[in-house]
């Protein structure tokens, strides 16, 4: 089991990193979106490996299914041609290096003695861990308020999107439409 | 009432008058402010008489009364009280000041009528009298300096009374600046005296001076010279005299009060009051005497050629003050103060008469345009002539007794210096008589000026109002003289003021007739009891010889004037032509103004514009201010460079911040 | 598997996303990189949740997903508005904060 788990992990990890690299490096934004979809699927696999079944499902359905489709629509609408990868400005050429530096720091932090508290085995978990039943119970009992707030946030976002993207043809148009 | 109380009353009345008049400046109708001011001074005069009688009622040993109000300054080592000294010298000065001021106030009630600054004038005039009385009644150097400064300020306010006249304003500034130079001298003298004697009271300083200073001690001579700087600035002696002729820009009553009878005598009073110091430092006293003599000669010669009526009288004042300075510096105190008194009488009278004549001329002060006012203005003619006779030292006039007592004292002092000064004084006496009657003959005799003709027919001349010096037109709204002119023949207050002065000019000599009466001298003696020169007066025989000589000189001068101005008219013009250079030298006032201009005024003005152009513009504005601004600008430009507007740059800054934080925590935990 | 592997993986994805945000000019791709950042965070959360046996981390990750969705919606709306107003689709074009 461990070996199988390890193989699955590495394959999923490779796909995830590859997808991430693809998002950043591919010139056509359309392809970047597809790379991200791949990345999300890899990530869903990793969630499964971590006993987060419900989350993996939500990831695929919501993230990869809905959000990415939205991206695709906008990518098609807006277009956005090929653009040179090399960023403009002297400071921004150093951006990858800063990112690398941050990675180094985080890696040291994760692997170094600072995080020696990380247990390699993980805690004992019962079979329902990460399943929908547990999720539902937690959401409706302990985390009710964050749950409601999140739905509120979704509403605001939806309204905001409509406001942002509507055509503005002046106020007379609105008056006409309202029948005044 | 105690003597001290009289002293305070003398001060209180003019101060109250000034404040009351000033506070109600919109309320006083017509001439009310004038009468109020005169009343205040009349009450001050009555208080002076009260003080005088109160002093007389004491025996001579106790005639120096100091009345304290409260501690004025009380810090480490310096104790000064607000107190007045009522002693014979100050009472005599108070009587003179308040008496003559009272008459001048009455004169001004009529003279300044129709001037829009009428109320302001009387509050200033009361303030001036208060300041002068404060100066005179001071019992320590601090109050003296306070009074000194106040008097200077009052003089400035009154000289530039018609404040829209540019010449008047300049004259006021000139007077004030020179007075301040004197103030500085006075303050330095006070410092020096305090340093050595540890006190500022007259009594304390004079008592300790013989112990602390030896004869002709350097510090004492320096202190006395500084006192002299103050005295000369106030009394318009060489070299600080140039302000006095310009001060004639003020109204005539101001000239009469300040620049004839009271303020300019402050220097004489100062030397008389600080006589113990001068007797200990005869060098300084000798310098004062020499300067006084030089001034009296110089002023006399200038008065010979000047054509502006008021300025002749001004130079005459300068000259007569020179006599007084010589008198008190030669330690002839009674003689000096006596001449101060008689001079107050006849000089104020002369100014009043001149004011009347100038009014008749419609504001013109140039003697070239005057003449023949004898019949049109009889009262003015008589009083003016009496004043001129007293000034010349005509026998039996008060001026005869006083001036010649000074000259007599000179010769009596002996040595080489004083008789020489006496000779110069005699020569100048001749010149004095001459120019005095030059004024009389040119103004009242000779061909009648058109204004005189009009006046005889009953018409007071009312020409266009012009600046008498420059001739430019002025309107008679506030800041310029009023529309109407007032002459003595028509306004009774003016006559009421001039008549007593004329009387006093005639009989004033009675208080000190050598060999006959010595009331003046006897009364003043307690103030000078510590002087070894006071009782050393010439014998009556010598005095009478001097008086006869003086009288002859006076008559000679008058005779010469009569000759040149009545009998042989036009001679003076030809003489002026013949002696063009000396004449110019004199009429340019010995070029003092030009010299001061070149030595002091121009360089300072140049330095000022240099400062403005170079130091201020380039250095301060450009370098310091501009530099500070530049640094701030550069700093903000550098700071602004961070705000590129690009989102990604801001994100990068975020990342750098996170990196730094992470690094910190990593290092922390390791 | 060692949880630390998952953490390192999460860091790698995070830094990749960061590099993308900083260096790409197309706002669409910037938003995609932003998704990467959020996903990396999700991964870390779930890994820790597994480590402690506490499902709270997964709830957190769910809420993060919701937030990501909202943010994507608004961001895409902005891009559409940019397109509609004929602004070139370039992050550097929006530099009105330049001071």
Return the average pLDDT of chain C rounded to an integer. 89
Q: Which CATH architecture of chain C is right?
A: Orthogonal Bundle
Radius of gyration of chain A: 22 Å
Please estimate the helix content of chain C. over 70%
Radius of gyration of chain C: 17 Å
In terms of quaternary structure, the protein is heterotrimer
Query: Class of chain C, according to the CATH hierarchy?
Result: Mainly Alpha
Total strands of chain C: the figure is 0
Fold-level CATH name of chain A: Four Helix Bundle (Hemerythrin (Met), subunit A)
How many extended strands of chain A? Answer: 0
pLDDT < 50 stretches of chain A: none
Q: What level of helicity do the residues of chain A show?
A: over 70%
Number of helices of chain A: 8
CATH architecture of chain A: Up-down Bundle
Give the helices and strands of chain C as they follow along the chain.
HHH
Q: Per the principal axes of the C-alpha atoms, what is the gross shape of chain C?
A: elongated
Which tags fit this structure?
heterotrimer; B: 670 residues; mainly alpha; 2 domains; two-stranded antiparallel ribbon; 26 helices; 71% helix; 3% strand; C: 99 residues; Helix Hairpins; 3 helices; 77% helix; 0% strand; elongated
Structure description:
The complex is a heterotrimer of chains A (180), B (670) and C (99). By secondary structure, chain A is an all-alpha fold. Chain A has 8 helices and no strands. In chain A, helix 1 runs antiparallel to helix 2 and helix 2 runs antiparallel to helix 3 (53-78). Chain A is globular. The relative contact order of chain A is 0.06. With 670 residues, chain B is mainly α. Chain B has 2 domains: 164-584, no CATH class; 593-669, no CATH class. A two-stranded antiparallel sheet of chain B has the order 1-2. Chain B starts with a helix and ends with a helix. The model of chain B has no long low-confidence stretch (mean pLDDT 86). Chain C has a single domain (3-89), classed as Helix Hairpins (Orthogonal Bundle), CATH 1.10.287.3510. Helices cover 77% and strands 0% of the residues of chain C. In chain C, helix 1 packs antiparallel against helix 2 (27-52). The longest helix of chain C is centred in the C-terminal third of the chain and has 29 residues, at 56-84. Chain C is elongated, with a radius of gyration of 17 Å. Chain C starts with a helix and ends in a 15-residue tail after the last helix. The mean pLDDT of chain C is 89. At the A-C interface, helix 1, helix 2, helix 3, helix 5 and helix 6 of A face helix 1, helix 2 and helix 3 of C.
